[in-house]
Design brief:
Four copies of one chain form a homotetramer.
Chain A: E1 23-30, H1 33-39, H2 48-64, E2 68-74, E3 77-82, H3 93-115, E4 127-134, H4 137-166, H5 171-178, H6 183-194, H7 203-207, E5 209-220, E6 229-239, H8 246-251
Antiparallel strand pairs in A: 1-3, 1-4, 2-3, 2-5, 5-6
Chain lengths: 259, 259, 259, 259
């Protein structure tokens, strides 16, 4: 049985190389996570375990794919920035997209038990993904700012919404109450009605999470009591920084660097 | 904090709608499964549990995505045929690809324990995927024939190779021995040296696996002893058919039908 | 001066092969031809010389590019159907599009004098173009029907509009008068007010123009008075047929034939 | 006759918007110009009239399409750089490509008589075209350097080749003689054998042609003998500059400027 007569079907595979000199952003998004979070009784407005699970998967991604230079996550969404010069699978879009989504999903399913030891997975966690290309560092930063502002806006709204609901309002009434309110109205509502100072809420809720590799200096003390030794080591960092302002980027000039 | 100044970054998202009137094939492939199968001690040349796990994930896919009309799997690879008129997510390639790969991966990780109750997952299972479009039923069938011939060729080779290795040959010697042999040489080798009649090996090894929805007639006997009732039900079938010849397709004319 | 250090810029050229087994339609459209037809005093609603010039360019196209199997033109627009198996420049979209548009434009400028011997070209004739792919003969035919119905609708409207304008109405009044009228209203208006039987107007106006290669039988009479000889010859035909109904296609089964 | 039942064919038109923030290079190339230049007896190695005709068409392009910021031509090829922020036809690739190629071709056919008053056009001039995107000014400059180095290499070779042929060598012998020679060998050959100092040849041959808009200051002297007036005017410039070195670009900082 020869296969040659059928091999022409391979000609239908289309090339999908991403153009050079563009930062590759893979954004992963929970599929039907509204229902998923209900089914698994996630805390509202933020479930810290769920966020830590997302972050842990992102750390695995950064460790697994060496061309990812930065990741930013909020809620059930994570953006992975691949360096503009990446030659991973010859920059084939379908390889980069499918492997990113598959690896992240796999990690999420496997690590579930570590973060929810007392809950079984009831539905398969599932993520969709997309690739967006950015030709300049400035635009990558604006992309990240866009996501972080979104995080802030959503979190402020959700914090108000769920406080109202937990205090006895119906979901519909809570929605009505918040319609048209400005940021400072929401902060005031939280403070007056619930004694919550929004600025004091955990950064992981307000700012989302950043994951990246950094060089840290370690001091090693030999067992034999000899001289301590310093060495440089690459480590994956998880933090909750303001990535809209310049400060973080000035302090980490190597993360986004045009070639 | 307004987001409007950053929203221009959305303009960089490119449309990726797949053209109408084309069958959409999503082929999923185990990533680094050579190592994965070693790490988990898969039987050689075929691990029946591993194949059944793949098939079980494919069944879930067919149940989950109603536009998948047929799936064909062999080894660590599975092809899913989406009907040519599918409007799933407006035919956006990245949605179709990422959700397919993510759902399959999720299922694989979750169902692992059902098929390997005594083995822990040591590495995260990971799959890559690609989309290929076929504008005619005839070419979809040729695509499936291509995969099934491949299954046959690989299985015959692997069966010989592993019998030789298990009988004491080094992998290199086994390779040398098989170089340039024809199908009938391999069959003879199996028969003479190992008493194996290749044609008698299980179809799941020789023909791979087909998954599709079929209408079956059920006979229901009411608890109250009343008259039995017949009803039609859609059920997902797993089988190991010859999909190169016309017979299967003549018997299932609705699976691949041009609009 | 070596060029090697700059050659990396070639890597930015993206592949643009059109998928196999699809009919390639190149539709060319006059750019700013409203003004162009005013500047050159084209007859309204139809300028027969201008249409014949378009047809003559289409004939040159069909002679020049052997993979074009059919062309259909109306007003300042022409569609060229390339056979589904064409391997012209490896099916690269930019080659097919740019050469089609360039050759057509060149012909238009060169042949102008043949059709308008007493008018100089005042503006450069310019055409834009696009490629659309159709995976089935049926859809190619629907595409052509779409263009021919459009021809009919526009021609009927324009005939009424220009008769009204020529009879003294302002363009605005003519527009108002025709707003919301049905086909039969327009036919009646033409007949009652201007004594025009729409059905008797020339087919080139009502049906547009078809260009294709056909095999014709020639009878050759030798100069020496010997026996006449019959031979088959491929000739480019220009006609004004109904291409919506089956008849034309039944009579020319070789033009659109799936492989 | 309603068109609605056929309008679905429009769904097959694919979006082809070019990504934002990329310089758009449209490179136009003479199609079968080897033969075209033979048929019209172009001077070898360079026909000054033919080059001036190409340049004149490029000037028309720059005047016609206001988003073209720079054009560079050599032999029968011209590259047009569209500014990175161009919104011409919503950045649709097929519109930009087809209109560029069509307008250039039209101009070439129309202006022919101005540059070759004693020669009739024997074949239709035809150009193919392609679009390449460059995300950074630096790479646009490298692209232009690539073309100019190519101009230099080809011109030096062709000058030697045609001097040898004109002096009586066969084309094959000329080719053989030049095989493997370095730049300085060719210069020496020209000087020793033909008394030609390559560096003294016209810049239009050695460096190709640049076309761009520049602001020039005009001094107007009123007819009534009043005071002269200075005013700024945008004018299209044709020059033969070194565009590899920084000097030209430092003197014209506005041509390629990232937004």
């Amino acid at each position: 049985m020869a296969n040659s007569k059928y091999e022409y079907v391979k000609k239908f595979e289309m090339e999908d190389k991403l153009p050079a000199c563009n930062w590759i952003v893979v954004r992963i998004d929970g599929h039907k996570f509204h229902r998923f979070s209900d089914d698994h009784d996630f805390d509202k407005p933020n479930d810290e375990n769920a966020l830590n699970l997302m972050n842990s998967c992102a750390v695995s991604m950064v460790e697994q794919f060496s061309d990812i230079v930065f990741a930013y996550g909020v809620s059930d969404e994570y953006s992975f920035i691949w360096k503009e010069t990446s030659q991973f699978y010859d920059r084939r879009a379908s390889k980069i997209l499918s492997l990113s989504v598959s690896y992240f999903t796999s990690m999420y399913a496997i690590k579930w038990k570590d973060f929810f030891p007392h809950k079984d997975l009831k539905d398969p966690p599932c993520f969709d993904g997309r690739i967006v290309l950015y030709p300049r560092v400035k635009i990558v930063r604006d992309y990240l700012s866009w996501r972080q502002v979104d995080c802030h806006i959503n979190n402020q709204y959700n914090t108000c919404f769920w406080m109202l609901v937990k205090s006895g309002k119906s979901k519909k009434d809570a929605q009505e109450l918040l319609k048209g309110t400005l940021a400072k109205d929401k902060n005031e509502l939280l403070f007056r009605q619930f004694g919550i100072n929004y600025d004091k809420l955990p950064d992981i809720f307000k700012k989302g999470s950043c994951v990246y590799k950094d060089t840290v200096e370690e001091t090693l003390k030999p067992d034999d009591g000899g001289n301590t030794v310093k060495r440089q080591r690459r480590r994956v960092i998880v933090g909750h920084f303001n990535i809209i302002e310049d400060r973080f980027w000035n302090e980490h000039p190597n993360i986004l660097k045009e070639d």
